[in-house]
């Protein structure tokens, strides 16, 4: 056991990266491996602690938030925007312009993990993709009234038993015929407006697993509220986030050239509200 | 093997829309000499000279995952150096330019085959 620990420490110090580094507070099996099936950790006040590095189990949630075989109840203009985004294979997603995913889809990028740091008054979420972050205030404050619209909106969180409930509003969203404003709800391109109110429900089922569902309330884009598929995340033990800044975006020019050519051949009127 | 399973699953990941830029119906396998390497995010790019049977040389550009993704897949930043001969399995761009999205790279001096995409299969 001691030699295994020494070996892993030596490996960590000789590696230029922190890809593999034993992290304190990790429950372990007798052979020293992280025990991802151990009980979920708790904070000093007895609440579940969501802290850790997480990765979505599948890219499917990032493609489409909805449960398989279901459709979002889109208003006609939103359905047109969505149809256009799907038909053009999402070439003009925010990421093409080095803008990040949003809420909740920044957590569903399966190739790039995120890190939750839970503190008594705020939960901080660091996203590896594009080096961005999100803050979920847990000090009891209310959502701001008439806030300056923001890409990630404004988030407040509270506990209901073992479920962490996050309310987020104050988003930038599609305005008039400018479908470029704000994030997309998923990579397929479900749109949202500045009326979006999201309710996320997180549950850490054990040390290595977390699940989340989000309810979408946006009366300017959808005929009723709807709820996502249950999204599942697995803890990435004994590792760290690495830098992922958008420093070399070689794709933008070729994507724009190719798809402007395609769209000139078949013009679209999508985006009119 | 991993290339086949990726193609079959229809999934290929990138910071941008993979399907909008590259075509899974246009697989290419090329061997050449590395001329340039950009170890950058959101994607690593490398370029290599490919010699045709008639002796002409074409420079190709290949997109890979980001640095974190390749490090997690077993790469080091000096795994591939200018002048190395490598074999690439990739999907060509929709516009038929000499650009492609690499799925795997085989380093011919060691025989090591490394996954090159944005998420390990």
Describe the structure.
The complex is a heterodimer of chains A (273) and B (121). Helices cover 16% and strands 23% of the residues of chain A. Chain A has a single domain, classed as Beta Barrel (Lipocalin). Chain A has a nine-stranded mixed barrel. Chain A is α+β, with helices and mostly antiparallel strands. The termini of chain A are far apart. Chain B has one domain: OB fold (Dihydrolipoamide Acetyltransferase, E2P), CATH 2.40.50. A five-stranded mixed β-barrel of chain B has the order 1-2-3-5-4. In chain B, 15% of the residues lie in helices and 44% in strands. The longest helix of chain B has 8 residues. The radius of gyration of chain B is 13 Å and the shape is globular. At the A-B interface, helix 4 of A face helix 2 and helix 3 of B.
Relevant terms:
heterodimer, A: 273 residues, alpha+beta, Lipocalin, nine-stranded mixed barrel, 4 helices, 10 strands, 23% strand, globular, B: 121 residues, mainly beta, OB fold (Dihydrolipoamide Acetyltransferase, E2P), five-stranded mixed β-barrel, 3 helices, 15% helix, 44% strand, disordered N terminus
Which helices and strands appear, and what pairs or packs with what?
The complex is a heterodimer of chains A (about 270) and B (about 120).
Chain A: H1 2-14, E1 52-56, H2 60-63, H3 76-87, E2 114-118, E3 122-127, E4 132-137, E5 154-160, E6 163-169, E7 197-206, E8 209-217, E9 226-227, E10 231-235, H4 251-265
Parallel strand pairs in A: 4-5
Antiparallel strand pairs in A: 1-2, 1-10, 2-3, 3-4, 5-6, 6-7, 7-8, 8-9, 8-10
Chain B: H1 2-9, H2 18-21, E1 22-38, E2 45-51, E3 57-63, H3 67-72, E4 85-93, E5 99-107, E6 112-115
